[in-house]
Design brief:
The complex is a heterodimer of chains A (about 210) and B (about 180). Chain A has about 210 residues and is mainly alpha-helical. Chain A is about 70% helix and about 0% strand. Chain A contains 10 helices and 2 strands. Chain A is globular. The relative contact order of chain A is 0.13. With about 180 residues, chain B is mainly α. Chain B folds into 2 domains: about 100 residues, no CATH class; about 70 residues, no CATH class. In chain B, helix 7 crosses helix 8.
Chain lengths: ~210, ~180
C-alpha cells in the first residue's frame, strides 16, 4: 500500500530515481502544453488564451480523483504522505505577492525552469529573480518573515471536512465547476479573439 | 515550412493536464510527496549560502534546520531530482518540437528590456512569496488540491484571484 517511500518499501536511491522520471513527465507536459511561452501563461489573465486554466484544473482534478479512489480502495493511505499544513494568514499574503509576480513576470517557478532550460531569455532572467527573492527572504527571515510565516496555523486541514461534506462530494462539485468553466472560458476566448485579436505566438516566431 | 509548423504545435491542454495529474499521483504514491517547483530554488539557495558561509548558515533560523553537521546535503533531495527531471523533460520536448532556441517571450508592444526587467521583478516576488507561502503553483496549490488540503484552495484563490485583480494595472505588458 502506498505511499511506498515513507513506509520504507522502496530505497532512497529508487525514490530519487523516480523523482527524476516523474519530473521528466511533468516537464514534457509543461513544455508540450506551451508553458515555456510567457504569452500563453499570461493569456489566462487577459482572456486571449485559457490554456493555463485548462491544464491546471485537469491536472489537479485528475490527481484528486485518482488519489481519492486509491485512498478509498485501500491502495494508498493519504495520511502517511506529506500532507500540507494550513497557515492561512501567510498563505493569503504570499498568494497576493505571487499573484503580482505572475502578472508582472509572466511565469511561476516551475514554468520558468522549463522556459530557462529551453532557451527563453525571459525565463532565465526570471529564474535569477526567484533566486534573488529566495535569498532576500532567507537573509531577512528572522527580522521580517518568521512571525508572519508561523501565524494563522490551523494544522492539517482537509477542505471537505472543514466545510462538512465528504471528500467524494467535494471533488465531484469542483469537477462540475471546472467543466462549466472549461466551456465558458472557451467561449470567452473565442469572442475576445474575434473582436480584438492579440498577436499570435505563431506570427511572432516565438 | 514543415519545421515551422511543428514549432507551433502544442499538446491538447486536457491531455497535458491528465499527464501532469498522473505524475502527481505517482509522486504521492511512490514518494508521499506532491510535485514542486520552488522547493528546488530553496535547496540551491541553502546549499550555496552554506558553501560560502557555513558559520552564518548554521545559526540562522532559515538555514539552520538544513545545514547541521552530519545532515545530508540539501541538494540530495527529492525536489532537486524532480526538477532535474523537469529540465530534462522540457528540453526533450522542445527539441522534438523544434522550439530549442534563444529568444524573449513577450508582447510585441514592449521592448526586450521592459520584458526582462518585469521578468526579474516577477521572479523576485515569486521567490519571496513561495517561501512565505510554503510553495508555489505546484507545491502549494496543485499538490494541495490533489489531497483536498485547505491550504491549496486558499493559495488558488489568492494567486488566481489576485492575478485577475492586478492584471488590469499591468495590461500594457501583455495586450
Amino acid at each position: 500500500m502506498g505511499p511506498l517511500f515513507p513506509q520504507e518499501l522502496i530505497s532512497e536511491t529508487i525514490n530519487l530515481l523516480l523523482a527524476f522520471f516523474i519530473g521528466t513527465g511533468f516537464g514534457l507536459a509543461l513544455e508540450g502544453a506551451g508553458f515555456t511561452n510567457t504569452r500563453k501563461l499570461a493569456g489566462v489573465f487577459y482572456g486571449y488564451d485559457f490554456v493555463v486554466l485548462k491544464v491546471f484544473f485537469t491536472a489537479a482534478l485528475t490527481a484528486a480523483i485518482g488519489l481519492f479512489l486509491m485512498n478509498s480502495y485501500g491502495l494508498m493511505d493519504i495520511k502517511l504522505t506529506f500532507y500540507p499544513q494550513t497557515f492561512w494568514i501567510p498563505t493569503v499574503v504570499a498568494g497576493i505577492i505571487m499573484a503580482l509576480g505572475f502578472v508582472v513576470g509572466g511565469f511561476c517557478p516551475g514554468t520558468s525552469v522549463c522556459a530557462a532550460a529551453t532557451g527563453k531569455i525571459d525565463g532565465i532572467v526570471f529564474v535569477v529573480g526567484v533566486l534573488i527573492g529566495v535569498l532576500g527572504y532567507a537573509f531577512s527571515y528572522e527580522t521580517i518573515f518568521e512571525k508572519l510565516r508561523n501565524s494563522g496555523s490551523l494544522g492539517q486541514v482537509n477542505i471537505a471536512e472543514w466545510i462538512g461534506i465528504s471528500d467524494g462530494l467535494f471533488i465531484f462539485i469542483v469537477t462540475l465547476v471546472a467543466i462549466v468553466a472549461f466551456v465558458v472560458v472557451t467561449k470567452i476566448q473565442k469572442a475576445l479573439n474575434d473582436k480584438n485579436p492579440v498577436a499570435k505566438i505563431e506570427d511572432l516566431g516565438l | 515550412m514543415e519545421e515551422k509548423s511543428k514549432r507551433n504545435q502544442y499538446w491538447n491542454p486536457y491531455l497535458a493536464g491528465f499527464v501532469i495529474g498522473l505524475m502527481m499521483i505517482a509522486a504521492y504514491y511512490f514518494s508521499g510527496e506532491g510535485l514542486g517547483g520552488s522547493g528546488a530554488f530553496k535547496s540551491i539557495a541553502i546549499a550555496g549560502v552554506d558553501a560560502v558561509a557555513h558559520d552564518y548558515a548554521k545559526d540562522a533560523a532559515y538555514f539552520a534546520p538544513s545545514v547541521q553537521e552530519g545532515s545530508e546535503s540539501p541538494l540530495n533531495s527529492w525536489l532537486i531530482f524532480e526538477v532535474l527531471g523537469v529540465i530534462a523533460g522540457a528540453v526533450i520536448s522542445a527539441a522534438y518540437f523544434n522550439r530549442l532556441s534563444f529568444n524573449v517571450g513577450k508582447s510585441p508592444k514592449i521592448t526586450n528590456k521592459t520584458r526582462l526587467i518585469a521578468a526579474v521583478f516577477g521572479g523576485i516576488l515569486w521567490g519571496v512569496g513561495s517561501q512565505l507561502g510554503r510553495g508555489c503553483t505546484s507545491g502549494l496549490i496543485m499538490s494541495g488540491m490533489a489531497v483536498n488540503a485547505l491550504s491549496g484552495y486558499i493559495g488558488l484563490i489568492a494567486v488566481f484571484g489576485g492575478g485577475y485583480a492586478f492584471a488590469y494595472f499591468v495590461r500594457k505588458l501583455w495586450i
